[in-house]
Fold this sequence. Notes:
Blueprint: H1 2-14, E1 20-27, E2 33-39, E3 46-50, H2 59-71, E4 78-82, E5 87-91, H3 98-103, H4 108-131, H5 143-150, H6 152-161, H7 168-186, E6 190-193, E7 202-203, E8 216-217, E9 224-227, H8 230-236, H9 245-262, H10 270-297, H11 308-321, H12 326-335
Antiparallel strand pairs: 1-2, 2-3, 3-5, 4-5, 6-9, 7-8
Helix pairs in contact: 4-9, 6-10, 7-10, 8-10, 10-11
Keywords: ATP-binding, Nucleotide-binding, Transferase
Pfam families: APH (PF01636)
Protein name: Aminoglycoside phosphotransferase
Amino acid sequence: MHRLEQLRTWLASVLPGQSFELAPASADASFRRYFRATFADGSPSRVVMDAPPEKEDVRPWLHVAELFRAAGAHVPDVLAHDLEQGFLLLSDLGSTTYLQALKTQDDAPQAVRTAHHLYADALGALAAIQCASRPGVLPEYDRALLLRELQLFPEWYIARHKGVALTEAETAMLNTAFERILAVNLAEPQVFVHRDYHSRNLMLLDPAEGRGANPGIIDFQDAVYGPISYDLVSLFKDAYIRWDEEFILDLLIRYWETAKKLGLPVRAEFSDFHRDFEWMGVQRHIKVLGIFARLYHRDGKDGYLADMPLVMDYLRRACKRWRDLGPLLKLLDRLEPEETQVGYTF
């Protein structure tokens, strides 16, 4: 309550004379919280970020917001900030995520048309961000960081969540698999990477409310300079919504063709680009399983448990497709015997 009172006091100081009400807007997997401020005089609502400075640093968020905005992406405007207290006053991109918009579609053909349109917008924004890329501006998505993410899997998913102790041979196999995955990931061309470019972090904007072009982009503070396929994996192999392979391949090909025309550093052959995409997905899904397990066991957030089967299914399918990942597939079968298939959303 003390923190909320600090927030109210700060907001009153930057909005003198304005009467407002605060209500929770959203929370994420970090220590940040978001509130929506609505005003008695009918002024446009605002969003307030509460990032406790001892746990969260808002400066990376501000830095990435500036980069992405300059690239032409639609991110929240910063109306006021207090770095010492960890408060930001932002323009409001609304409360409808891509995920909510896509899951409320009833008619299947119309839903697919809507999805194509929304994802085309998302790819356009992503390409704009990637075209603005340059080295030395964002942290490197280097071997150390990629490997640290992979190590979340044995620590939190295998040992803590599944309660399984690996044999020496299994540990050696897993380390070998990690090295193969990293070799493909690190050979990719590099661009700016949002790092969580998925349906929960893309906002559906209402043109009638003057909020601008889709998508609104949030939760970008962990952006890095890394593999060009990473954000495409986040977008199309989304932990929260499933698309069939034909849909994904169609949009991937469209992206690849457009990226080449824009001069983005994609592979000359689509088959090579697709392999990069698949192996980048393996790294991300291994990481995400570890993160979801950690959120549950360490942070008491059980909402992500329901999303684990889809992530595991993505991982298992990739391991079946690529022979070099066969030993990893055997380990997955021991950890979680394959019993059910995850159905498509549409």
